[in-house]
Write a structure and sequence with these properties.
The chain has about 90 residues and is of the alpha+beta class. Helix content is about 25%, strand content about 45%.
Length: about 90
């Protein structure tokens, strides 16, 4: 009985650990891309290979980004989440 409870405890602890690591892991991307569309709180970008993404941006930043301009963009995506802007610079 005691072994069974220990085994169940180990399995539950392992599942919790995997779940926490999965939840808090992020994917970071930095690339040169052209801004295709800017709306309040989001922008659509296309990188040099043509892949498009919609990135969440601060609402105050929406008016500062110009469409059809090339930028160096850094963004993050958490598991099961949206792409969130981390940094943007003009690409000279």
């Amino acid at each position: 009985m005691k072994r069974k409870r220990l085994g169940i405890s180990i399995v539950i602890t392992g599942l919790l650990y995997v779940g926490l690591v999965w939840t808090f892991s992020s994917e970071y991307t930095a690339e040169v891309a052209v801004v295709k569309d800017v709306r309040l709180g989001k922008m659509t970008i296309a990188n040099m290979s043509g892949r498009t993404r919609t990135v969440t941006i601060p609402k105050a930043t929406s008016g500062l980004i110009q469409e059809e301009q090339e930028y160096f963009i850094q963004y993050e995506k958490k598991n099961f989440g949206r792409y969130i802007l981390q940094g943007i610079e003009t690409n000279l």
